[in-house]
Specification:
The complex is a heterotrimer of chains A (349), B (272) and C (649).
Chain A: H1 11-15, H2 21-36, H3 43-68, H4 76-92, H5 97-116, H6 124-145, E1 152-153, E2 157-159, E3 162-164, H7 167-190, H8 192-202, H9 204-209, H10 214-240, E4 242-243, H11 250-263, H12 268-295, H13 301-325, H14 329-342
Antiparallel strand pairs in A: 1-4, 2-3
Helix pairs in contact in A: 3-7, 3-10, 3-11, 3-12, 4-5, 4-6, 4-10, 5-10, 7-8, 8-10, 11-12, 11-14, 12-13, 12-14
Chain B: E1 8-19, E2 22-33, E3 36-41, H1 48-56, E4 63-68, E5 71-72, H2 78-83, E6 86-88, H3 101-108, H4 117-122, H5 126-144, H6 160-172, E7 178-182, H7 190-205, H8 214-218, E8 222-226, H9 230-236, E9 239-244, E10 247-252, H10 254-259, H11 261-268
Helix pairs in contact in B: 3-6
Chain C: H1 17-27, E1 32-38, E2 41-46, H2 47-63, E3 71-75, H3 80-91, E4 95-98, H4 105-115, E5 117-122, H5 125-133, E6 143-146, H6 155-158, E7 163-165, H7 166-179, H8 183-190, E8 196-201, E9 211-215, H9 216-229, E10 237-239, H10 248-252, H11 254-260, E11 263-266, H12 273-280, E12 284-287, H13 289-304, H14 308-329, H15 336-357, E13 364-367, H16 374-382, E14 387-391, E15 400-401, E16 414-416, E17 421-424, E18 429-433, E19 440-441, H17 445-451, E20 458-466, E21 471-477, E22 482-483, E23 489-490, H18 492-500, E24 505-511, E25 518-524, H19 526-535, H20 543-547, H21 550-564, E26 573-578, H22 598-604, H23 606-611, E27 618-626, E28 632-643
Helix pairs in contact in C: 1-2, 1-3, 2-3, 2-7, 14-15, 14-16
Chain lengths: 349, 272, 649
């Protein structure tokens, strides 16, 4: 709902996302804040922010694939792995990091299309199984043929004269990529491709009747989603200066799916909400777990067990609660809150 | 008045369709002509919707051909058939219920938007221009069907009668040369039926001027109407085909059908 | 004759309405004049464009045979084409006769014949069909011109020479302008200030409707007077919803557009008006109490159904609003403490509330037609709207109003405006004189003579009371003042207006002329009463059944007691009945502006109008009722007569 007096004089107005001066102010303040973040935070927080930023990039991809196009993928972390290892291996043979990053993302997109091929014939639950298969197959392939067993080292990333070997510096790289990729994702959702994705998700019979090549768009969704994943994987490898299979297991794929669900299926802001929320919960539970473990008899199996499993317990509970009470995610709840504020002091319009 | 010989738009040539052992359509032969509203009537289960699904490409008949623009439609995927100019509505309304009216109509403009992945990723520039152009087309359809008040409402929240109109608008947005309408009057009260009939006639006749979109001004010249409501059918159809148990049992003008004994026995029973 | 001595003369350089059109082309050429929402977005038309379109249309009309001084009627909702046609017609010296969109075919025949119109400009297929049904009865109409193309492609319209499209007329005009450039400008110069500009038909509460003829100078004087009290600037947005059939149109629309440069905005369709109103954010509203009460109750309902926090904040701020409004009404300066509170209340409650209604940018609201109930009047002032009463009639469209910076006496119509003189006759009737008085009732010289006497005083027919400070209080129409058998006078309309403030009461008909006491026949608001019945577990089947329930009668009784407390004992309501159906303008029981047509009602419902004074408890009422498709039926109901306790001697 727009403020009183705001009119659309052209279709460009009607399509625009930012309609009032106040919204411009919000955007600029947010960007300035993000860029100035390193100035008033410590290394721990910046590492967390880099981690969150890369998560958001990957989550955007999964959001487009699963949230918008409805092709639920439980292999997303594997595609990040493809990107990480491609970037690392290419960088190791002398290719510039940034070029390797892009190539890694493209390779990941290609692999995504291959594993998306079954989507022409199978849907829903069975497609999810095939993505789980992707998770494992890719792991084995990388371990077997691409030095996945020992990992690949990446030297610190250099731009011009700067070496991005610390969180503050790397943050700017991640932030820039994040801004670009968010813009691209939002653009895609506003055009025919985004609408085709949603059509395929909501009603693929009707989508076919509208002239949408549903199989083609499902493959495109895999390609785009896995491109984002590969990009995120490469960036992560560049940050920790190492590509390893440990960070991209099935459990991580499930974390990403949780981000999409908790954040809000089918929204761009959902990727942001979900990433910050889930990563936040993870961090908090890592902090709380030892503290709770200390309350129990020291050295006992229970104490150790709690410390290790609390994050998962916590996370599982949160996920289940969300699915029951907030199935449309945080983004939806945020929209309702905003709308209620816009309607102030009325209850409905 | 000189009766101009009408061109055949779609030739349904002896198609038969069976599911497992059940013969759903047997030896159906039908000439769907241009510049005509042709109706298909028949009892429930006589195969009318199946025929439409065959033409749209959702079912594949085991025998026969469907010739349109010189090509056999059988075996082509549905989206390809839509790009060739055949649009349809569904008996049970296959709308995108999570989207607004506007977005449902814009989804149908898919065929006409040329922006690829690169243009869509950048948005500003060619993709933006196309969005604006097609927004205008969609707004003209909204004006034509008088659904301005609901343009931003989520389709899932709309009453049944308005959803039907959105479905019709969505099919219209495909700029079809042939429009297949599947039981549009189902569940409508008298006033809604009158409104929908008027819209169908307006769609057929075209508005001649008043819109920038040529297809609205031109009108959809070939309409195939599957319908139960005899009043509507007798009113607007120029030719009627009657189905029973998957076979065509009669074909002719409304007057001929009204008096046809086989039809009366099979289907109509009482006086119309 | 027309008193101009207290007032600057009508601008000599711009003596007529079309002369303003020409001026605006020169001084405001690229500024927005009109704005129409179509196909989802607002299309803007500059003065240059409006001038060109009006010129083409006006010249086109000349091409098809229009002569200066001809009457042309316009039937249609307000859109760009309505105004372009109007301005074009002004330019070529024609007189515009406005007719209501929902006028019945017989009414249209009357208006067209009485005004001697030669052309009809209508909006759409529905109106064209209406004209076709009455074609034989209006032979003097040479052409019917339509502008909304939907449905007009059918051969029966295209091949009919009587019917023509707006664009075709404009095309003829464009060619004419190419062949004879400067004609339109010449025509504008030929129009004299004393020439007639518009004709408005007054609502026929008594007898047949009369065509009020108003000259260009009268319209311009009216606008200049309005500008003294309600100034509008270039670019101020107005919402056009009053049709050319009403004097409200020039008050809010065309004259504001032409003289002040206010932009007129047209919503997309009647169904989207509420949404569009928020986008227009008009500066000025001039409406009747019915509208204001609807908007106020909409506000209340929306806030009542909001969450606890929203309700709490609003209800906390409302008393502040009332207190501040009281200072403003009494024209006392606001103490600093209240100024701070006012600011807080505005930003937390009132501003967002007005934003939702579309009233955020309102500079002033005027109320005319009936006096706005004191409660509603104060409510609007409390929530931040500068609401003022406005006393006007079609014949002399501004007599009195509340003046900014002066005391506002709630319940009054304000002070007499500058350049208007008034006099009270012996019977309490108000006589008025002013430069914006109308010329005549068309072709009714006897009615005109009885309205405007030889000294130029207009006999308004209103009984009023003017207090020592010069504030006017409206009592009733002189003819409406009724007297009981004892000679005691009372105002049926006044009592009815008071009754209508009841939440469950839709309308009221007061009887008592020549009788011993006053009685009331009341129609309930079926919506709110049926909800009330549901909540209180009162079962009912139809409206007729609901209307006769004792519980509903008790509900209504509360309002009767409220109204009675403000009346002298002799004129209090002693008996009442709840009518089984609503009063309906389509049944000619109400006029188009929803005023009760007493003579007709008395004839139609004689059985209950007399029966309520008998000793019977129940009266059977039968009346003929026509359905929308023309078939007629007799509806019978048994209406209970109830006594008001405490008023029986």
């Amino acid at each position: 709902m727009l403020p009183c007096g705001i009119r659309n004089v052209s279709y460009a107005d009607q399509l625009a996302i930012i309609r009032t001066p106040l919204q411009w102010v919000y955007l600029i303040v947010a960007l300035v804040f993000a860029f100035c973040l390193p100035l008033f935070s410590n290394s721990y927080l910046m590492t967390f922010m880099v981690y969150v930023g890369i998560t958001i990039i990957s989550a955007l991809g999964l959001m487009l694939l699963s949230g918008y196009c409805g092709q639920v993928s439980m292999g997303h972390a594997a595609f990040m792995m493809v990107g990480a290892f491609t970037t690392a291996n290419l960088n190791a043979i002398g290719i510039n990091f940034f070029l390797a990053l892009i190539l890694g993302a493209l390779v990941s997109a290609g692999v995504g299309v291959i594993f998306g091929l079954p989507s022409g014939k199978i849907k829903d639950f069975y497609l999810v199984l095939s993505t789980i298969a992707a998770q494992f197959i890719i792991s084995y392939v990388i371990i077997g043929w691409f030095k996945g067993d020992v990992g690949v080292h990446i030297p610190a990333v250099q731009i011009g004269g700067w070496t991005l070997d610390h969180a503050e510096g790397y943050w700017y790289l991640v932030l820039t990529v994040l801004i670009i990729m968010t813009f691209v994702a939002k653009s895609i959702t506003r055009t025919k491709i985004g609408r085709a994705f949603v059509a395929v998700r909501d009603n693929d019979i009707a989508a076919e009747a509208m002239g949408i090549n549903t199989y083609g768009y499902k493959l495109l969704a895999f390609a785009i989603g896995c491109f984002y994943a590969g990009l995120a994987g490469g960036l992560w490898a560049g940050f920790i200066n190492f590509a390893t299979v440990d960070h991209y297991s099935l459990v991580d794929s499930i974390w990403y799916l949780a981000i999409v669900i908790v954040g809000g299926v089918g929204t761009i802001t959902g990727a942001f909400f979900g990433s910050i929320f889930i990563r936040g919960i993870k961090e908090i539970s890592y902090i709380i777990a030892p503290w709770i473990g200390n309350m129990l008899p020291a050295g006992s199996a229970l104490a150790d067990g709690i410390t290790l499993s609390l994050p998962y317990l916590f996370f599982g509970t949160v996920l289940v609660l969300f699915i029951i009470y907030e199935p449309r995610g945080l983004a939806h709840r945020w929209e309702i809150l905003k709308e209620s504020g816009r309607l102030w002091p009325w209850g409905y319009w | 008045m000189i009766q101009v010989e009408k061109q055949t738009k779609i030739k349904v040539d002896k198609i038969s369709l069976s599911f497992g052992g059940a013969m759903v359509l047997t030896d159906i032969e039908l000439d769907i002509k241009d510049n005509e509203i042709c109706a298909i009537i028949g009892p429930n289960g006589s195969g009318k919707t199946c025929l439409l699904n065959c033409i749209s490409g959702f079912y594949k008949p085991q025998q026969g051909q469907i010739i349109y623009k010189g090509k056999n439609l059988i075996g082509l995927p549905p989206h390809k058939i839509t790009t060739m100019g055949i649009g349809r509505t569904f008996q049970n309304l296959e709308l995108f219920t999570g989207l607004s009216t506007l977005d449902n109509l814009r989804a149908a403009r898919h065929l006409f938007i040329k922006s690829g992945l690169l243009a869509s990723s950048i948005y500003f520039g060619p993709a933006h221009h196309e969005e604006i152009k097609h927004m205008r087309v969609v707004e003209e359809i909204i004006d034509f069907l008088e659904i301005e008040p609901i343009r931003n409402r989520i389709v899932g929240d709309l009453p049944y009668g308005l959803r039907k109109r959105v479905e019709l608008g969505r099919a219209l947005a495909l700029e079809p040369e042939v429009l297949l309408v599947d039981e549009p009057m189902a569940g409508m009260n008298l006033e809604e039926k009158e409104d929908l009939t008027r819209f169908l006639l307006d769609i057929h006749m075209g508005t001649e001027f008043g819109y920038e979109s040529e297809f609205l001004n031109r009108g959809v010249k070939c309409i195939v109407l599957v319908e139960h409501d005899m009043g509507v059918v007798m009113d607007i159809a120029e030719r009627i085909t009657v189905f029973d148990f998957g076979r065509k049992i009669a074909e002719g003008t409304p007057n001929e059908i009204r008096g046809d004994e086989r039809v009366i026995n099979a289907y109509l029973g009482e006086e119309i | 004759m027309n008193n101009k001595s207290n007032f600057t003369a009508v601008g000599e350089e711009y003596p007529t309405l079309p002369s303003y059109l020409a001026r605006n082309y020169l001084i405001w050429g690229d500024k927005v004049a009109l704005r129409q929402k179509d196909f989802g977005i607002w299309h803007e038309y500059t003065w240059k464009q409006v001038y060109e379109m009006s010129k083409n249309f006006g010249l086109g009309m000349l091409s098809i045979g229009l002569k200066k001084g001809d009457k042309v009627c316009i039937i249609g909702d307000n859109e760009v084409e309505t105004y372009v046609a109007a301005y074009g017609l002004y330019g070529v010296g024609a007189v515009i006769v406005g007719i209501w969109v929902d006028a019945l075919p017989d009414e249209v025949v009357y208006y067209l014949t009485d005004s001697e119109s030669r052309f009809a400009i209508v909006r759409d297929q529905e109106q064209v069909d209406k004209m076709l049904t009455i074609k034989n009865k209006v032979p003097q109409i040479e052409k019917v011109i339509w502008w909304e193309p939907k449905g007009m492609a059918a051969p029966e319209y295209k091949n009919n020479p009587w019917i023509m499209g707006f664009n075709d007329v404009s095309e003829l005009g464009r060619k004419y302008d190419q062949e004879h450039p400067g004609t339109f400008e010449e025509c504008i110069k030929q129009v004299l200030p004393s020439d007639s500009a518009n004709m408005y038909y007054t609502s026929g509460t008594t007898g047949a409707a009369k065509g009020v003829v108003r000259s260009h100078s009268a319209q311009i004087y009216m606008r200049k007077l309005l500008n003294l009290y309600y100034p509008l600037n270039l670019g101020d947005d107005c919402h056009s919803m009053i049709q050319f059939a009403s004097i409200g149109e020039p008050i809010t629309g065309s004259t504001a557009n032409l003289l002040n440069g206010a932009v007129i905005n047209f919503p997309e369709s009647p169904d989207t008006t509420e949404v569009d109103l928020r986008e227009i954010a008009p500066r000025f509203h001039s409406l009747t109490p019915r509208f204001y009460e609807e908007i106020a109750s909409k506000m209340r309902v929306r806030i009542e159904s909001a969450g606890a926090l929203k309700r709490w904040v609003f209800n906390l701020m409302l008393p502040i609003g009332y207190k501040v409004a009281q200072y403003e009404i009494e024209n006392r300066p606001l103490p600093v403490w209240w100024r701070i509170l006012k600011w807080i209340a505005w930003w937390t409650a009132f501003r967002p509330n007005l934003d939702k209604c579309g009233l955020l940018k309102i500079k002033y609201c005027t109320n005319s037609g009936f006096v706005l109930g004191a409660h509603t009047f104060r409510f609007y002032r409390a929530i931040g709207i500068d609401m003022r009463e406005f006393y006007a009639s079609t014949e002399i469209p501004i007599i009195a109003t509340h003046v900014k910076g002066h005391n506002i006496k709630v319940g009054s119509l304000g002070e007499i405006v500058v350049s208007v003189e008034v006099r009270l006759a012996d019977n309490g009737e108000l006589y008025i004189r002013g430069p914006h008085l109308f010329d005549e009732y068309y072709r009714k010289p006897d009615k005109t003579a009885s309205a405007i006497d030889s000294n130029g005083w207009y006999h308004s027919g209103d009984a009023v009371y003017i207090d020592d400070d010069g504030y006017i209080f409206y009592i009733d129409r002189v003819t409406e003042l009724a007297s009981l058998s004892s000679g005691q006078k009372y105002s049926p309309q006044g009592i009815e207006a008071q009754m209508r403030f009841g939440a469950y009461i839709k309308d009221c008909w007061i009887l008592g002329e020549g009788k011993d006491y006053v009685t009331a026949i009341i129609t309930i608001d079926f919506d709110s009463v049926s909800k009330w019945a549901e909540r209180h577990h009162v079962p009912f089947t139809t409206m007729i059944d609901l209307s006769q329930k004792d519980e509903v009668a008790n509900l209504v009784l509360k309002d009767i007691i409220r109204v009675n407390s403000g009346l002298p004992p002799a004129t209090r309501i002693k008996k009442f009945a709840i009518f089984h159906k609503e009063f309906d303008p389509d049944e000619a029981e109400l006029t188009r502006s929803r005023k009760l047509r007493r003579e007709y009602m008395y004839k139609k419902y004689k059985d209950i109008a007399d029966g309520i004074y008998s000793d019977n408890d129940v009266i059977q009422v039968s009346a003929e009722f026509s359905y929308a498709d023309g078939t007629k039926d007799i509806v019978t109901a048994n209406v209970k007569i109830r006594k008001v306790p405490g008023e029986q001697e």
